[in-house]
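@channel sequence for tomorrow's demo:
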Amino acid sequence: WLLGLAVATTVLSANPAPASAAAGGAFKGTLTINCFGCGASSGRATLKATGTIAGKRIVQAPLTMSFTFYSSLATCPVQGQATGTYSGAADGYFGANFGPTGATFGIVSFTGEINGVGTISLASTTPDVISCGQPLSATVVGEFAGT
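structure tokens (generated this afternoon):
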């Protein structure tokens, strides 16, 4: 089961890409939501990102996402939304919409040093399956593209 939020990276290239280079890449890491399906609940993702951000090539760079996840018990686990900030290898804001195929897959919109869209998915680690009305820990994978 996949849900996701997060991006993380460390600048390893001595030769950064031109400032006009498009942003793009992938991220993976872990995610926690204090109470999944409980209305508004805080969450955090700790990620590693690889790609190009703000004209610089990054490889396994740290990226942290802090967010509020919105999902009511009436729509959980089918639909949800998240809004928040990302920082580390890049800084900015993001929003994600999950559903109608389930809250394990979402479309993410980024603004800031990443301006574009991406996808995010998660696999629940605690509990073993996504359950509404309780804390959630998950592994996260995703990708992003933009300018």
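heads up for whoever presents: The first strand starts at residue 23 and ends at 36.
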